Amino acid sequence: MNVARGTHIAIREVSKEFGPKVALHSVTLDVEPGEFLVLLGPSGSGKTTLLRCLAGIERPTAGEISLNGNVVVGDRSFVSPEKRSLAMVFQDYALWPHLTVSNNVGYPLSRETKETRAQRVSDLLERVGISHLANRFPNELSGGEQQRVALARALAADVGLILFDEPLSNLDADRRELLRIEIATLTRDAGATAVYITHDQAEAFALADRIGVLNHGKLVQIGAPESIYRNPTNAFVTRFTGIAGEFPAQLREVKSDGTALVSLEFCPDHVVEGRVIGDIHDQLAFFVRAAGVSLSAASDENGIRGAIRDVAFNGRGYEHVVELASTAVLTKVFSSKRFERGENIKVHFDSSASFVMSPDRKQQ
């Protein structure tokens, strides 16, 4: 397979308005050559609009986008999508229905000789595991097979930038997991820069070199998956990237190491610890990741009393739903040991996976 040189992306103060609705607010972002960037956010966050602006399908209301130092959209310039040296993998596959798998994949290679095109298509179909489907038409393929064709077609273009528009959202869990690995591996092997959008935080963490979290058209945090998970910037990012619980809290003490001791509203006599995020206000919440919760027997002297509301086997062990009070519930609490429904237990919070911050829901 040919190795394309990844594209450098520079996005500067890009905004997009659709009538009175502001879809993007002054987004500034750099993506390095060969980087796999995932744009993560809920529906309406602006991630699709940003991808479409990058592709040239939408034109920003303001701002500038450059690819490898060349301005493709700005106050006085606009380069059409076909001249941006990029490929796009769509959620709905966007295959030509009248062309076979081989002809769909070979479509970007129309300027190559017949022999070169045939060899390149053969190599790509083998790489994505669908050589046996070469002569079939799209309507004869499953969703996962169609998405493999779309990926092979994007790689065939041998460009420096591949854009992914939620390509796995129409697939079942098993196919999604398998194709996610293939997308990451094949894109990196090709040397291309990738920008991938999703609303699935597990998918984002599994794929990304860096994650950009968007909300209401604003880029609210960008960083490596570990940084996003361990050091969220606010309550929205914390919630959206996965928590087991969020509870109103009363501040007891702020320590010199950046952690705080708080008491929880449903258990005022029990003090827990978490890292302080942002400014301390009168109204605080204690957030805990699922990885920061452990369970023990009710006879344990330490911990907060609770009861098991539900339990499910997930292959690696057991996920529990834990009731701490009538209004306090923890979800997706993992344990290698099964605790039975209705069983009384003790709950323990790990301060390294717990946060104290403002619960401000205006960020949502």
Would you give an account of this structure?
22% of the residues lie in helices and 37% in strands. The protein has 8 helices and 20 strands. The longest helix is centred in the middle third of the chain and has 18 residues, at 173-190. It starts with 8 loop residues before the first strand and ends in a 7-residue tail after the last strand. The chain has helices spanning 47-55, 101-106, 114-127, 143-156, 173-190, 201-207, 225-230, 235-240; strands at 9-18, 21-31, 36-40, 62-67, 70-73, 86-89, 161-165, 193-198, 210-215, 218-223, 245-254, 259-264, 267-276, 284-288, 293-297, 304-313, 318-325, 328-335, 344-349, 354-357. Strands 6-7-8-3-9-10 form a 6-stranded mixed beta sheet, sandwiched between helices. The chain has a 5-stranded mixed β-barrel with strand order 11-12-13-20-14. A 5-stranded antiparallel beta sheet has the order 15-19-16-17-18, with no helix packed on it. With 364 residues, the chain is α+β, with helices and mostly antiparallel strands.
Features:
364 residues, alpha+beta, Rossmann fold, 2 domains, five-stranded mixed beta barrel
First and last CA, distance:
44 Å
Tally of separate helices: 8
The residue-averaged pLDDT reads 93
Percent helix, as a range, is 10-25%
Strand content: 35-45%
Main sheet: which strands, in order across? 6-7-8-3-9-10
Regions with little confidence, pLDDT below 50 for 5+ residues: none
SSE topology string? EEEHEEEHHHEHEHEEHHEEEEEEEEEE
Please state the CA-atom Rg, rounded to the nearest Å: 24 Å
User: Which class of secondary structure composition applies to the elements?
Assistant: alpha+beta
CATH homology-level superfamily of the largest domain: P-loop containing nucleotide triphosphate hydrolases
CATH class of the largest domain: Alpha Beta
Q: Main sheet? A: 6 strands, mixed
CATH topology descriptor of the largest domain: Rossmann fold
Q: In total, how many beta strands?
A: 20
Number of domains: 2
* Molecular shape: globular
- Tell me the CATH architecture of the largest domain: 3-Layer(aba) Sandwich
